[in-house]
Amino acid sequence: MAEDGRRGDEDERGPGAAHQVFVVMECLLEKLKVLNYEEEVLAKHNMKNLSRHYFVSSPYLASNPGEQFYMFTVIAAWLINLAGRPFTEPQEYDEPNATVSNILAELRAFGVKVDFPPSKLKSGSGEYVCLVLDRLAEEALKRRSFSFRRPNYPTETTEEESVTEDDAELTLSKVEEEMIEEPDDEENVMDLETLKLRTTHTEAERSSKPDEILESTVDATEWNLEVERVLPQLKVTIRTDNKDWRVHVDQMHQHRDGIKSSLKEAKSYLDKLQEDIGKTQEKVGSREKYINNQLEHLIQDYRSAQAKLSEAKERYQQASGGVTERTRVLAEISEELEKVKQEMEEKGSSMSDGAPVVKIKQSLTKLKQEIVQMDVRIGVVEHTLLQAKLKEKSNMTRDMHATNIPEHAAGPFA
């Protein structure tokens, strides 16, 4: 039922929810780099740099839960301190549950809603670990008044088509510049002005001639000699530019031809390889069928032996369960017997030992001495009390005589 609920949540969040944790981890790493965690955390604890997907839980990534959980607690404590709240840095042997609860308490203090159990953080990796560190990193960046802004891309100025010149095209101005740059080693150099005058003169003559079929009267050999003489001057070199689209098109055609030729060669090899693989599969299938037919009775014997083994294991488990119970009862009886033996030894040692009798005699002697001393003290006190009573009685008698004698003496004189 839990797996069905989890699948339902993933369906609601969309197909890309499983890969969202990779994006969160990459953003978290960038925020940690902004906060300079290499010097303040890694260098302090002698740790290696985090990879792009260090806290991501995936079966395709290597994991070390103990190391990841310790790294998570250290970075979380550092971020909480950066965010302005004091937090003691956890140690490697601290209680994981207490550490996680303290981190979540600090996260709730920042106003973040925690709707997942703390046990999700004990593995040291996963979606909730990345979420907690990301929110703490945001609070630390807010404390430093840092915020990410959109990049400003430079505006590209598009030049007018009339201004741009194609280096691959041959223009009269470029020809003139190249002719000026080249040294005049030859004596017979054609002048452009003279060429223009000849061209205009020829056009004028053509316009003056009537419209009829023109036949050449120049000898072919002389024409070839003139061409050979003028040919070095007619050569124009055009510098190739790698940015030219014509070069790119030529390269594309060359690559396409190369791919086609390579594809033809590779296709034959692949077809041959496919045929070999198909034949090998057929051979393997036929061998498997033959082996299965030959070993069918052995397989049945193996299954029956396996069934007997399972029954024997079950009986052994039942017997071992009874033995375990009896062993436990024997251990309890042995423990009680040890207690009884210990009590008997203590009583026997106390009965055979004469030290208590000696102690009793010493106590009686001391008690008699104290009684004698007490009797003496009592006699002294009684004697003192008797003396006090006698003294008090004598004083009373004296006082009585002192009061009675004057009365008799005053009687006759009255």
Q: Sheet with the most strands?
A: none
| Percentage of residues in strands | under 5%
- What separation lies between the terminal Cα atoms? 131 Å
Query: How many E strands?
Result: 0
Low-confidence stretches: 1-11, 159-173, 182-190, 410-414
Helix proportion: over 70%
Judged by helices, strands and strand pairing, the structural class is: mainly alpha
Q: What count of helical segments does DSSP give?
A: 12
Rg from Cα: 59 Å
**Average of the residue pLDDT scores:** 77
Question: What would the principal axes of the Cα set say about the shape?
Answer: elongated
Question: Helices and strands, in N-to-C order?
Answer: HHHHHHHHHHHH
If you had to describe this structure to a student in words, what would you say it looks like?
Among the domains are: 18-144, no CATH class; 244-347. It has twelve helices and no strands. The chain starts with a helix and ends with a helix. It is elongated, with a radius of gyration of 59 Å. The model is unreliable at 1-11, 159-173, 182-190 and 410-414 (pLDDT under 50). With 414 residues, the chain is mainly alpha-helical. This is Intraflagellar transport protein 57 homolog. InterPro entries: Intra-flagellar_transport_57. Its main location: other.
